[in-house]
Design a protein that fits this description.
By secondary structure, the chain is an alpha+beta fold. The chain folds into two domains: about 5-10 and about 105-320, 2-Layer Sandwich (BirA Bifunctional Protein, domain 2); about 360-445, 2-Layer Sandwich (Alpha-Beta Plaits). The chain has 14 helices and 18 strands. The chain has helices spanning about 35, 60-65, 80-85, 95-100, 115-130, 145-150, 185-190, 225-230, 235-255, 295-300, 315-320, 335-340, 375-385, 420-440; strands at about 15-20, 40-45, 70-75, 80, 135, 140-145, 170, 175, 195-200, 215-225, 260-265, 270-280, 285-295, 305-315, 360-365, 390-400, 405-415, 445. The protein has a seven-stranded mixed sheet with strand order 5-9-10-14-13-12-11. Strand 11 (about 260-265) and strand 12 (about 270-280) form a beta hairpin. The longest helix has 21 residues, at about 235-255.
């Protein structure tokens, strides 16, 4: 999909306690970024994951599956509890499984593939731009609807604003869908050259390349009239030329001498807009999206008579290719057989699969209603099975004479660390069926 907010490229757990520096945007939960830089964020988590190496009775399994997650974020002495994010609010659609990912920040772990890739991009900008780009990798993922959509010119009727696509804390607050949510705030703070890296959240399908939490990096650079006038160029041409030169260099830095091509694209807050593709492993692959920033954004945030470029890339997408990681769930693995394979500063070390456990397939058929969406189904499956759910695939659909439609979905359960028992899978499927019937108001067949 080419729209910015729907693309993973363009900005549209190993430790029991993680302490990181955090600079937060204003929201109903977060304090002002101006004051927050002097504080640290702490996360205390007690959760009940599925067992990795033991089997137990159905009764115990059911109890463990339903055990609540207890988690608190402590920010400068102020605690943010689960109820601040998973609210009893009619507009709230954030499940515990998503709340449990807040504060984990894989991109800040230097030994993790996501952190290694982020640092490789930093290295390119440090070497080629004399450290003039300010790096932000600890901005709060809780932002306002205005920051996430309005400030970057996302149309009021755009599909990305729907509750089917975005995690809403309340009607005016969301978990950011892209790192572009911080663009306007940073411009108002006087930033002109910056890189923003962070975890982003989107309700999505279940397969090997999609996950509701992933990581993005956005780059932004502002130009003044004297920069393009000395070359006798107009502002748009100059910004686009500098943008392409920068990103072609970054691509060579990450992938080596590869064939590249530029493809015209559309994003709400850049014009012209482009996607950069490379010919890699015998096929064309999109690397990132980018463009010349709309003047409306610059003028609204105090950069009158300036020009700018912006780019965004999805770190998981590139890391899966560079490290040969076959399943996006592995990035969240605590298994030492995964974690120990990577070393800080070593980009492109090829992942060696340590196991291949058998899949377990379960089919489920039901009559759908007008409000049914596949994303809602996937949220339920993830809420019950967590990362044991490998894929959810529509395998059959038909409409009867009464014009009522039936869907049949195949759910693949597979652990990346052990073999699942029949008892476990049957209980998971039973719980999924119960939740689907009660929450989606469908009729099971």
């Amino acid at each position: 999909m080419k729209m910015l907010i729907q693309s993973r490229s363009f900005a549209l757990l190993r430790y029991p306690m993680i302490e990181v520096a955090a600079s937060l945007s204003q929201s109903t939960v977060c304090v002002s970024s101006t004051f927050f830089r002097r504080y640290a964020i702490r996360r205390y988590t007690v959760s009940a994951p599925l067992p990795s190496s033991t089997t137990f009775s159905t009764k115990k399994l059911k109890k463990k599956l339903r055990q609540p997650v207890m988690s608190v974020l402590e920010i400068g002495g102020t605690k943010i509890c689960r109820d601040d994010v998973v609210k009893d609010d009619p507009t709230n659609n954030v499940p515990d499984s998503i709340f449990s990912k807040l504060g984990l920040q894989l991109h800040r772990r230097d030994q993790h593939p996501i952190g290694i890739l982020k640092n490789a991009v930093y290295d390119y900008f440090n070497k080629n731009y004399s450290s003039e780009f300010t790096k932000f990798d600890n901005l709060c993922p809780i932002v306002s609807v205005k920051q996430n959509f309005d400030d970057v010119l996302v149309p009021a009727d755009h599909v990305s604003r729907s509750y089917n696509d975005t995690y809403y804390i309340d009607a005016q607050t969301v978990l950011r869908c892209h790192t572009s949510a911080h663009q306007a705030e940073l411009l108002r703070m006087g930033q002109t050259h910056f890189l923003v890296t962070g975890d982003v959240y989107r309700r999505d399908s279940i397969d090997s390349t999609h996950y509701p939490v992933f990581h993005q990096m956005e780059g932004f650079r502002v130009f003044t009239p004297d920069e393009w006038e000395q070359f006798g160029m107009d502002n748009t041409t100059y910004a686009a030329t500098e943008l392409k030169k920068c990103l072609e260099g970054l691509t060579r830095h990450l992938f080596g001498a590869v064939e590249m091509r530029w493809v015209d694209a559309y994003f709400p807050f850049t014009s012209p807009s482009f996607e950069l593709e490379i010919y890699f492993q015998e096929k064309w692959m999109e690397v990132l999206g980018c463009g010349v920033v709309e003047q409306e954004i610059l003028k609204k945030n105090g950069r009158v008579n300036n020009s700018a470029w912006a780019f965004g890339l999805g770190l998981e997408r590139l890391a899966m290719v560079l490290f040969d990681i076959p399943d996006i769930r592995l990035f969240w693995s605590n298994d030492e057989r995964f974690i120990s394979q990577f070393t800080g500063g070593q980009l492109g070390v090829k992942f060696k699969p340590f196991s291949k456990f058998p899949p377990c397939y379960k089919d489920m058929s039901f009559w759908i209603n007008d409000s049914f969406t596949e994303n809602n189904l996937c949220e339920i499956v993830r809420g019950v099975a967590g990362d044991l759910a490998e894929t959810v695939q529509l395998i059959d659909s038909f409409t009867n004479k009464k014009r009522i439609t039936s869907h049949c979905y195949r759910i693949t359960y597979r652990s990346m660390e052990r073999s699942l028992t029949d008892e476990e899978v049957n209980q998971l499927q039973s719980n999924v069926r119960e939740e689907v019937q009660s929450k989606l108001n469908v009729v099971l067949r």
